[in-house]
Design goal:
This protein is about 30% helix and about 25% strand. The protein is α+β, with helices and mostly antiparallel strands. Helix 2 crosses helix 4 and helix 5 (about 140-165) crosses helix 6. Its main location: cytoplasm.
Amino acid sequence: MIKEAIGVGDNEVDALNDAKKQLGLDETAEVEFEVIQRAEKKKFGLFGGQPAKVKITLKETPAEKAEKFLRDVLDNMKLESVQIEKNEIEGGIEFNLTGDDVGFVIGRRGETLDSLQYLTSLVANHTDNSYFKVTIDTGNYREKREKTLEILGRKLAFKAVKTGRKTNLEPMNPYERRIIHTSVQKINGAISWSEGENANRHVVIGPDPKAAKPVRRNGGYNNRGRGGRRPYSANRSEHNTPANPDRKPLNEGGTTGLYGRIDK
Protein backbone atom coordinates (compact mmCIF):
# COMPACT_ATOMS: atom_id res chain seq x y z
CA MET A 1 0.00 0.00 0.00
CA ILE A 2 1.22 3.49 -0.88
CA LYS A 3 0.34 6.41 1.36
CA GLU A 4 0.02 9.82 -0.25
CA ALA A 5 -0.85 13.31 0.94
CA ILE A 6 -1.03 16.69 -0.78
CA GLY A 7 -0.30 19.61 1.47
CA VAL A 8 -1.39 23.19 0.83
CA GLY A 9 0.20 26.33 2.22
CA ASP A 10 1.20 29.92 1.59
CA ASN A 11 4.64 28.64 0.58
CA GLU A 12 6.36 25.31 -0.16
CA VAL A 13 7.54 24.84 3.43
CA ASP A 14 4.05 25.32 4.86
CA ALA A 15 2.61 22.99 2.21
CA LEU A 16 5.21 20.32 3.03
CA ASN A 17 4.47 20.54 6.74
CA ASP A 18 0.75 20.26 5.99
CA ALA A 19 1.34 17.05 4.02
CA LYS A 20 3.49 15.64 6.84
CA LYS A 21 0.75 16.40 9.34
CA GLN A 22 -1.80 14.52 7.24
CA LEU A 23 0.43 11.44 7.28
CA GLY A 24 1.08 11.69 11.01
CA LEU A 25 4.73 12.67 10.57
CA ASP A 26 6.72 15.14 12.60
CA GLU A 27 7.75 18.34 10.83
CA THR A 28 11.42 17.36 11.28
CA ALA A 29 10.94 14.02 9.47
CA GLU A 30 12.94 13.68 6.28
CA VAL A 31 10.81 12.62 3.32
CA GLU A 32 10.90 12.73 -0.45
CA PHE A 33 8.37 15.14 -1.86
CA GLU A 34 7.24 16.73 -5.11
CA VAL A 35 6.22 20.35 -5.56
CA ILE A 36 3.19 20.19 -7.82
CA GLN A 37 2.30 23.88 -7.58
CA ARG A 38 4.39 26.83 -6.54
CA ALA A 39 2.91 29.70 -4.61
CA GLU A 40 2.07 32.90 -6.48
CA LYS A 41 1.23 36.18 -4.82
CA LYS A 42 -1.82 38.15 -5.84
CA LYS A 43 -1.17 40.99 -8.22
CA PHE A 44 -1.71 44.30 -6.52
CA GLY A 45 -2.88 42.27 -3.57
CA LEU A 46 -6.24 41.71 -5.30
CA PHE A 47 -6.00 39.53 -8.43
CA GLY A 48 -4.86 35.99 -9.15
CA GLY A 49 -2.45 34.25 -6.85
CA GLN A 50 -2.38 30.60 -5.76
CA PRO A 51 -1.16 28.57 -2.79
CA ALA A 52 1.74 26.13 -2.90
CA LYS A 53 0.98 22.41 -3.17
CA VAL A 54 3.41 19.66 -2.18
CA LYS A 55 2.88 15.92 -2.60
CA ILE A 56 4.44 13.29 -0.30
CA THR A 57 4.39 9.62 -1.26
CA LEU A 58 5.27 7.01 1.37
CA LYS A 59 5.84 3.44 0.29
CA GLU A 60 5.33 0.58 2.72
CA THR A 61 8.51 -0.73 4.28
CA PRO A 62 9.30 -4.48 4.04
CA ALA A 63 8.42 -4.78 7.73
CA GLU A 64 5.01 -3.18 7.20
CA LYS A 65 4.32 -5.42 4.21
CA ALA A 66 5.27 -8.52 6.19
CA GLU A 67 3.14 -7.63 9.20
CA LYS A 68 0.09 -6.79 7.08
CA PHE A 69 0.36 -10.03 5.09
CA LEU A 70 0.85 -12.11 8.24
CA ARG A 71 -2.18 -10.53 9.88
CA ASP A 72 -4.34 -11.11 6.80
CA VAL A 73 -3.33 -14.78 6.61
CA LEU A 74 -4.05 -15.38 10.30
CA ASP A 75 -7.44 -13.69 10.00
CA ASN A 76 -8.32 -15.81 6.98
CA MET A 77 -7.34 -18.90 8.98
CA LYS A 78 -9.94 -17.80 11.57
CA LEU A 79 -7.13 -17.09 14.03
CA GLU A 80 -8.06 -13.51 14.85
CA SER A 81 -7.20 -14.15 18.52
CA VAL A 82 -3.53 -14.82 17.73
CA GLN A 83 -1.46 -11.78 18.64
CA ILE A 84 1.60 -10.63 16.67
CA GLU A 85 4.57 -9.29 18.61
CA LYS A 86 7.31 -7.77 16.48
CA ASN A 87 10.95 -6.96 17.05
CA GLU A 88 12.77 -5.05 14.31
CA ILE A 89 16.39 -6.09 13.91
CA GLU A 90 19.13 -4.98 11.55
CA GLY A 91 18.16 -6.10 8.06
CA GLY A 92 15.00 -7.84 9.14
CA ILE A 93 12.16 -8.39 11.58
CA GLU A 94 11.19 -11.09 14.06
CA PHE A 95 7.54 -11.97 14.69
CA ASN A 96 6.41 -13.92 17.75
CA LEU A 97 2.87 -15.29 17.73
CA THR A 98 0.98 -15.70 20.99
CA GLY A 99 -2.49 -16.93 21.84
CA ASP A 100 -4.54 -20.04 22.53
CA ASP A 101 -4.61 -21.22 18.91
CA VAL A 102 -0.92 -20.98 17.99
CA GLY A 103 -0.77 -24.76 17.70
CA PHE A 104 -2.63 -24.49 14.40
CA VAL A 105 0.08 -22.12 13.13
CA ILE A 106 2.90 -24.57 13.94
CA GLY A 107 1.43 -27.55 12.11
CA ARG A 108 3.03 -30.97 11.73
CA ARG A 109 6.69 -30.68 12.77
CA GLY A 110 6.59 -26.95 12.09
CA GLU A 111 5.62 -27.29 8.41
CA THR A 112 2.83 -24.68 8.59
CA LEU A 113 5.07 -22.25 10.48
CA ASP A 114 7.86 -22.71 7.92
CA SER A 115 5.47 -22.17 5.00
CA LEU A 116 4.00 -19.07 6.61
CA GLN A 117 7.50 -17.67 7.21
CA TYR A 118 8.50 -18.41 3.62
CA LEU A 119 5.43 -16.71 2.11
CA THR A 120 5.76 -13.70 4.40
CA SER A 121 9.41 -13.36 3.39
CA LEU A 122 8.43 -13.41 -0.29
CA VAL A 123 5.96 -10.57 0.26
CA ALA A 124 8.48 -8.50 2.24
CA ASN A 125 11.12 -8.90 -0.47
CA HIS A 126 8.83 -8.46 -3.48
CA THR A 127 9.93 -4.98 -4.53
CA ASP A 128 13.37 -4.59 -2.95
CA ASN A 129 16.61 -5.91 -4.39
CA SER A 130 18.19 -6.28 -0.94
CA TYR A 131 17.32 -9.25 1.27
CA PHE A 132 15.03 -8.56 4.23
CA LYS A 133 15.11 -11.36 6.79
CA VAL A 134 11.75 -12.46 8.24
CA THR A 135 11.52 -14.85 11.18
CA ILE A 136 8.24 -16.17 12.61
CA ASP A 137 8.26 -18.07 15.89
CA THR A 138 5.87 -18.99 18.67
CA GLY A 139 6.67 -20.05 22.21
CA ASN A 140 10.36 -20.60 21.34
CA TYR A 141 9.27 -23.46 19.08
CA ARG A 142 12.26 -23.05 16.76
CA GLU A 143 14.76 -23.22 19.61
CA LYS A 144 13.10 -26.37 20.97
CA ARG A 145 12.98 -27.91 17.49
CA GLU A 146 16.68 -27.14 16.99
CA LYS A 147 17.63 -28.91 20.23
CA THR A 148 15.48 -31.90 19.27
CA LEU A 149 17.21 -32.18 15.89
CA GLU A 150 20.67 -31.88 17.46
CA ILE A 151 19.88 -34.75 19.85
CA LEU A 152 18.45 -36.82 17.00
CA GLY A 153 21.54 -36.23 14.85
CA ARG A 154 23.92 -37.33 17.63
CA LYS A 155 21.83 -40.38 18.48
CA LEU A 156 21.70 -41.64 14.90
CA ALA A 157 25.38 -40.86 14.38
CA PHE A 158 26.33 -43.07 17.34
CA LYS A 159 23.99 -45.73 15.99
CA ALA A 160 25.73 -45.60 12.61
CA VAL A 161 29.12 -46.04 14.27
CA LYS A 162 27.88 -49.00 16.31
CA THR A 163 25.89 -50.88 13.65
CA GLY A 164 27.63 -49.78 10.44
CA ARG A 165 24.23 -49.06 8.89
CA LYS A 166 22.73 -45.88 7.50
CA THR A 167 19.45 -44.22 8.48
CA ASN A 168 17.16 -42.11 6.29
CA LEU A 169 15.45 -39.19 8.02
CA GLU A 170 12.19 -37.54 7.05
CA PRO A 171 12.24 -34.67 4.51
CA MET A 172 13.36 -31.36 6.01
CA ASN A 173 13.92 -27.80 4.85
CA PRO A 174 17.53 -26.60 4.27
CA TYR A 175 17.87 -24.99 7.69
CA GLU A 176 16.90 -28.16 9.57
CA ARG A 177 19.14 -30.30 7.37
CA ARG A 178 22.09 -28.07 8.25
CA ILE A 179 21.37 -28.59 11.96
CA ILE A 180 21.53 -32.36 11.47
CA HIS A 181 24.73 -32.15 9.40
CA THR A 182 26.44 -29.98 12.01
CA SER A 183 25.43 -32.35 14.81
CA VAL A 184 26.69 -35.43 12.95
CA GLN A 185 30.01 -33.78 12.09
CA LYS A 186 30.81 -33.70 15.82
CA ILE A 187 30.79 -37.51 16.03
CA ASN A 188 33.88 -39.29 14.72
CA GLY A 189 33.08 -42.33 12.62
CA ALA A 190 29.78 -40.97 11.26
CA ILE A 191 28.92 -38.87 8.25
CA SER A 192 25.77 -37.33 6.76
CA TRP A 193 24.59 -36.29 3.31
CA SER A 194 21.36 -35.28 1.60
CA GLU A 195 19.34 -37.16 -1.00
CA GLY A 196 16.15 -36.45 -2.92
CA GLU A 197 14.83 -33.36 -4.65
CA ASN A 198 12.70 -30.42 -3.50
CA ALA A 199 10.03 -31.52 -0.99
CA ASN A 200 11.54 -35.03 -0.72
CA ARG A 201 15.09 -33.88 0.09
CA HIS A 202 16.22 -35.53 3.31
CA VAL A 203 19.31 -36.34 5.36
CA VAL A 204 20.97 -39.75 5.45
CA ILE A 205 23.28 -40.64 8.35
CA GLY A 206 25.75 -43.50 8.02
CA PRO A 207 29.21 -44.73 8.97
CA ASP A 208 32.15 -42.73 7.68
CA PRO A 209 33.95 -44.91 5.10
CA LYS A 210 37.20 -43.03 5.79
CA ALA A 211 37.12 -43.65 9.53
CA ALA A 212 39.68 -46.10 10.92
CA LYS A 213 38.09 -49.32 12.17
CA PRO A 214 39.55 -51.08 15.24
CA VAL A 215 40.91 -54.61 14.74
CA ARG A 216 39.48 -57.31 16.99
CA ARG A 217 41.77 -59.77 18.71
CA ASN A 218 40.62 -62.66 20.85
CA GLY A 219 37.07 -61.37 20.94
CA GLY A 220 38.01 -57.83 21.94
CA TYR A 221 39.53 -54.64 20.58
CA ASN A 222 43.30 -54.59 20.52
CA ASN A 223 43.29 -51.08 21.95
CA ARG A 224 41.13 -51.98 24.96
CA GLY A 225 43.54 -54.33 26.70
CA ARG A 226 42.06 -57.30 28.56
CA GLY A 227 38.78 -55.66 29.24
CA GLY A 228 37.07 -57.38 26.33
CA ARG A 229 34.58 -55.62 24.12
CA ARG A 230 34.32 -51.85 24.34
CA PRO A 231 30.84 -50.88 25.62
CA TYR A 232 28.76 -48.55 23.53
CA SER A 233 27.05 -45.64 25.25
CA ALA A 234 24.57 -43.39 23.49
CA ASN A 235 25.09 -40.85 26.24
CA ARG A 236 28.66 -40.02 25.24
CA SER A 237 28.98 -36.31 24.69
CA GLU A 238 30.39 -34.84 21.52
CA HIS A 239 33.04 -33.28 23.77
CA ASN A 240 34.51 -36.79 24.20
CA THR A 241 34.55 -37.31 20.43
CA PRO A 242 36.11 -34.20 18.89
CA ALA A 243 34.90 -33.25 15.43
CA ASN A 244 36.99 -33.99 12.39
CA PRO A 245 37.19 -30.61 10.60
CA ASP A 246 37.93 -32.32 7.27
CA ARG A 247 34.58 -34.18 7.12
CA LYS A 248 31.92 -32.34 5.14
CA PRO A 249 28.27 -33.27 4.43
CA LEU A 250 28.12 -35.03 1.07
CA ASN A 251 25.85 -34.16 -1.85
CA GLU A 252 24.13 -31.26 -0.12
CA GLY A 253 23.87 -29.29 -3.37
CA GLY A 254 23.93 -25.84 -1.81
CA THR A 255 21.89 -24.27 0.97
CA THR A 256 18.62 -23.66 -0.85
CA GLY A 257 15.71 -25.94 -1.59
CA LEU A 258 11.97 -26.01 -1.18
CA TYR A 259 11.96 -23.11 1.27
CA GLY A 260 14.80 -21.06 -0.22
CA ARG A 261 16.24 -18.56 2.25
CA ILE A 262 14.55 -19.60 5.47
CA ASP A 263 16.64 -18.68 8.48
CA LYS A 264 16.12 -19.25 12.11
